[in-house]
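Re: duplicated header lines in exported structure tokens

Our pipeline writes sequence and tokens for each protein into one text file. With two proteins the header for the second block appears twice in some exports. Here is an export where it did not happen, for reference. First protein block:
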Amino acid sequence: MVLVVFVGTFIPPIATRSFDPSQTGEVVLYVLSHSLVHSLAPFYPLFNIVALVLLVSLCVWGNRVARVFALYAGLNYILFAFLQSVAITDRYCVEIVTGNVIIMLLVAFTWLWEAVVMKGDYYLRGARRTRLWVVPLAVLAFWYPLNPRTPMPDFNPLYLVAGPGGWHSA
């Protein structure tokens, strides 16, 4: 698994319009800032609200809603794989950050497999306090307090519901 992630980070992006390999970093940043997901900003609140409801349900009912949570996570990662890593622009035509697609599809497959086998334990009452240090990091990742127009931190609490693109879209 680690090898796949490691290799995925070194797979170059592909574009229908050629570019100099020394511009790979610029192409990746361009794709990520012009990806298809930006056109879907009106749907951000729906996805975030569903995720918040599922997370609260998971905390309350644990394994009884775990399959639904795992399916939601897997399907979300499939969407992330293509919507966040693909752009159609005048500059490079169709561009794909291939490594991101591979890594996100691997994560999606892992969640979908969990939905089938259900080996995880989602009850919080048995969680060791020493493992809860990741919770603030998960909240920060979900919140994503970054202004997409200025790439600067922006801790607007509305981002918990809509994500930054939902409030900054033009």
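Second protein block, exported in the same file:
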Amino acid sequence: MSVMRMRFLSGVFRRIKTNQAGVALVEFAVLSPILITLYIGGVQLCEVIACARKVTSTARAVVDLTTQYSSISPQQIDGIMSASNQIMYPYDGASSFIRVSEIKIDENGVARVVWSRSKNGSPREYDAEVAIDAVLATPGTMYIYGEAEYKLKPSMQFVFSGDFTLGDAFVMLPRISTKVNCNDC
């Protein structure tokens, strides 16, 4: 190589090395897919968390309202469960699964179903065992046990794909009496 050519190439390399024009564009091109993915993932995560809170509020409200009766009819329970659609808004509460049951702790500390009612699913069988926290297993105690479940289809399926099944359960003591009677439940 000639000296002239060597000087020319070293000058070109020096200019490339010190030239900062376009660096920000290259950095943006490299980082933008990562940042966009993080943003969309954050939006999806917020949607799942918001829906999970709605499911928890629904389970709690159904149990809370049921415990305020000393005697309740199947129609009243159905009305309480239908009203839970308002809690689930803006999600489709009509497709959520809700079940409310009265359970009694037997002499062995096992929770057993006295009556049960559900929406969009099957109620628990009479005398079926229910798993509850051992702290609550005081023989002879009656509880209202409510469950809610919702299958969330995210509005965007980019970072997280598939459906999320969100659920929660609550246990409360009856408020007015020691039990809540439900004929024909």
